[in-house]
Write a structure and sequence with these properties.
The protein is built from five helices and ten strands. The chain has 187 residues and is of the alpha+beta class. It has one domain. The strands form two sheets. A six-stranded antiparallel β-sheet has the order 1-10-2-3-5-6, with helices on both faces. Strand 5 and strand 6 form a beta hairpin. Pfam families: TLD. InterPro entries: TLDc_dom. This is TLDc domain-containing protein.
Length: 187
């Protein structure tokens, strides 16, 4: 598939280098040739109910978040989210990623899941939850999200779990970041 056409409908993934990185990390041409943007917070509403209605039961799911603080990060799962009252879901191939920090100087990076850990949490009162609070959104996406990176996913060298550096790595802070846009793609 032509790189310029991948994410042509995205308000977040505008940089061709980000497209290349996501394609490299997911490494699934079938996903990219068939994927559709099933959810956009700006289009569909900044809440978990609308997000779950759009993505639950779809299978492979890519979540991309852009914060008002100008960070871009997200996660990918091959098993997808389920419509449930709360369930920890395992996916040994799940990963989270960072594409840009507030200054735009961080190199895009992919972070694999520790074993054994649950990859995602599916519960109707939350938006996307990756790992053990590595990042998550509450039911209202206008409220601050949370990130304590390193609970379930491997940290980059020099970053320690449950420290300011781990809590601020993905989104700039533990609990002071706010979603500007959230997009979810699936097949």
């Amino acid at each position: 598939m032509e790189l310029q056409k991948i994410f042509s409908d995205s308000e977040i993934v505008r940089d061709i280098e980000y497209v290349k990185k996501l394609q490299e990390w997911i490494n699934d041409n079938d996903f990219f040739s068939k994927m559709k943007k099933g959810f956009s917070a700006k289009r569909d509403g900044f809440n978990s109910q609308n997000w779950h209605n759009a993505v639950d039961g779809k299978g492979k799911t890519l979540v991309i978040i852009k914060t008002k603080q100008n960070f871009i990060f997200g996660g990918f799962t091959q098993v997808g989210f389920k419509h449930s009252s709360g369930e920890q879901i395992n996916d040994s191939n799940a990963f989270i990623f960072s594409l840009r920090n507030d200054k735009g100087d961080r190199i895009p990076a992919k972070f694999t899941i520790k074993q054994p850990q649950y990859a995602i949490y599916s519960g109707l009162s939350y938006g996307p939850v990756f790992g053990n609070d590595d990042f998550y959104l509450n039911s209202d996406f206008h409220q601050p999200g949370y990130s304590n990176f390193g609970g379930s996913y491997n940290l980059p060298n020099g970053i320690t779990y449950n420290t300011d550096s781990g809590k601020s790595y993905l989104a700039g802070s533990y609990d002071k970041w706010v979603v500007d846009e959230l997009e979810s793609y699936f097949i």
